[in-house]
Amino acid sequence: MAERVAGPEIERLVQLLARLPGLGPRSARRAVLHLIRKREELLSPLADAMRVAQERIVACSVCGNIDTSDPCTICRDARRDPSILVVVETVADLWALERAGLLNARYHVLGGVLSPLDGVGPEDLTIASLIERARAGEVREIVLAVNATVDGQTTAHYIADLLAPTGVKVTRLAHGVPVGGELDYLDEGTLAAALERRTVF
Amino acid sequence: MAERVAGPEIERLVQLLARLPGLGPRSARRAVLHLIRKREELLSPLADAMRVAQERIVACSVCGNIDTSDPCTICRDARRDPSILVVVETVADLWALERAGLLNARYHVLGGVLSPLDGVGPEDLTIASLIERARAGEVREIVLAVNATVDGQTTAHYIADLLAPTGVKVTRLAHGVPVGGELDYLDEGTLAAALERRTVF
């Protein structure tokens, strides 16, 4: 949209929305038109919700989750098992595990993975505070739920080495065939893991 | 994301963003995490831009475009040819034509198409004001740039009938093979139109 079509205010809104993951310039324009059509039901509440998020959302100083309270809802939840700590790369991963609803544990968000190429070292992640939490005595098991990528696994090994002296049990997610996965589309590493850890039918 | 994962404020932002076209619940969550990571560069300016849009964007009382001024930038542009009026269904169509940069004309946004099934009659569109603009004397040609859908074409016929007494020339967009289009994938109507209106090579 050239600036002469509409005012700079609309153009600015389009450009900002286009920076969201999943939206490009074209879908951002459609979103803006939708927002303006639904001014009272959507544009106004969304502007408010963003303002509230901007002002009130903080990172949890314990686990790194984001919430409007610190410690976050999960860390304050007394029904959560404090003896299991699930280490994830990002808040998105934490949410994914929570959506699955499989765990009643607490979390530790690393904030990324070690990546020498991108200049991400241990001091850029929340590894020091993880070791601290492990040493505090309450935690019995640390589940390294990092992505099965090279960087993710490197980071897991690095953390496992650091955790060894604490005596806390360190586990990781199982490799195998994803549910619904077709063997034909899986890589050899996954197939090897699935075969090696095969279970009795 | 269950409410217990994060506060209701985050959940509300996710739900509102998920209502934008092109975003679903999952991409809305990713967008929210992105927004919170880029709080100063993106979340805050976006909240502001939405507030500005909410407060300042109005529909042009002349053509139906949206802008922060009424009449809109296009209607106020003295360099635009006032003798050609391009009739479009929506502001999105107006923007699409402007992006193509082919026209130096003015527009008239209908606000939709006639659709008896959806209860959209002539009084729900800006047809009356279009006739008024046609009668005012400045307009020599009205291009019916509506979609090539059944409802679009029905609306075009309806408008053309109403415009006939004004003596203004009424035209419509050509049908044919889209640039880059493959014949194999085109419907018979398009092929027939492309054949019928074939031009000398």
UniProtKB/TrEMBL annotation, chains A, B:
Q: Give the superkingdom in one word.
A: Bacteria
Zinc finger spans (C4-type) are: 60-75
Q: From which residue to which does any coiled coil extend? A: none
Enumerate the Pfam families for this protein: RecR_C, RecR_HhH, RecR_ZnF, Toprim_4
Question: Toprim domain: which residues?
Answer: 83-178
Q: Which PROSITE patterns match?
A: RECR (PS01300), TOPRIM (PS50880)
Record-linked InterPro entries: DNA_Rcmb_RecR, Rcmb_RecR, Rcmb_RecR_Znf, TOPRIM_dom, TOPRIM_RecR
Briefly state the protein's biological role: May play a role in DNA repair. It seems to be involved in an RecBC-independent recombinational process of DNA repair. It may act with RecF and RecO.
Protein family: Belongs to the RecR family.
Record-given protein name: Recombination protein RecR
What gene does this protein come from?
A: recR
